[in-house]
Amino acid sequence: MKKQKIEKTADIVMEYSLYGMIFFIPISIAAIEAMAGICFTAFIVKKIVNPDFSFLKNKIYLILLTFFIFNALSLFNSGPYLAKSLKALFFKWFEFMLIFMLAAEGLNNRIRLRNFIIVAVFSAGLISFDGIFQKIFGTDFIRGNLLSTTGFITASFKNQNSFSAYLIIATLLAISLSMVSRLKIAYKTALFILALLCGTCLLLTQSRGAMLGFFGGLVLFSLFTSNYRIILICLLVFSAALLVLPEFQKKIINTIFYHDSGDRVALIQTTWSMIKDRPFLGMGLGTYMDHFNEYSSMKVTYYAHNSILQMWTEAGIFTLLSFLAFLGLLFTRALNTFKRNKDLVMLGIFCGLFGYIIHGFFDNHLYALQLRALFWLMSGALIAMIKTPFIKIEEKG
After folding, report:
1. Which residue has the higher pLDDT, 3 or 43?
2. Gap between the Cα atoms of 238 and 211, Å rounded
3. What 3-state class would DSSP assign to 139?
4. What 8-state DSSP symbol labels residue 392?
5. Helices (H), strands (E): how many in the chain?
6. How far from chain centre, in Å, is Cα 238?
7. How would residue 243 be classed by pLDDT, with cut points 50, 70 and 90?
8. Where are any strands of DSSP class E within 50-208?
């Protein structure tokens, strides 16, 4: 009886720390790490009391183990940067793979999934309101970040690209929830307003990569729900933004006609040169910036502004392929499950993650703590929904 009570307490602690993590994603890095530490400790206690690890038989964990092994093999090329590579292995990858596992196994019933989604939506609403507040008053009210001199918003994030990556998932989640037929009209209206709020913030970040990612996810969502009005509405909003936001208009025009991304092209060329030198095991985890100046005369850069190329550069092609296999299995299972139960919420998360990955071709989300946590948490929630659908509904016509 005592063991059962300990196990139940540990399970509840896991549950609420997962809620804490998703809430604090846009607000506090320290809180995210604290919640992750509490969650993992509770998981260890739970498994000491009841050492059941049968869940590890899931094929997706085998792929993640392969991914971890290939990351570890890259350390053979780390040389004098071995300590930095070890830190990256355990605190940039292993820690967040554990977060995926904790979410996948901790959100093990519909009530927990519902609560997790509610907390995620509340957090998204708070941070989107913060973004609008920053645009109007020049500073956000959570961290005191100032509005950019060029007019783009960051809310409580360090930069606009990080905020925009978060908003891809938040907006598509809000859209999917607003279409759940069983919800009361008041809730659906509030969720539609949240989707508009998140979408407005996405435009105000002026992140072209994020908009491309969002529209990629939106098109996928519309294809599976046969609801193309969403695309039309978003295109109309996008067109209106071009008319009323001159700074956004200038940025888009420069992209189309003047190709103002010369530095990024040079960055990709340099990154590709690094890849060609060590394509199989990479340069060593966490060593991109240490080797960059050996290949380029550009100013020191910290990241490749392309998550896929950075992964290949640091950890080699086999690591990249195992990560893509993880995504392939995750997305295939999600789509197959959606075809059976028409769970729009699960589809919204899937499409949000899909858009997030598209945006990752233009930035380094998988290397920023808040966005790493967001990716692995939502991926874990997606696996949990595959095992326990959030809600069965018919899509709205």
Report:
1. 43
2. 9
3. strand
4. -
5. 17, 0
6. 23
7. low
8. none
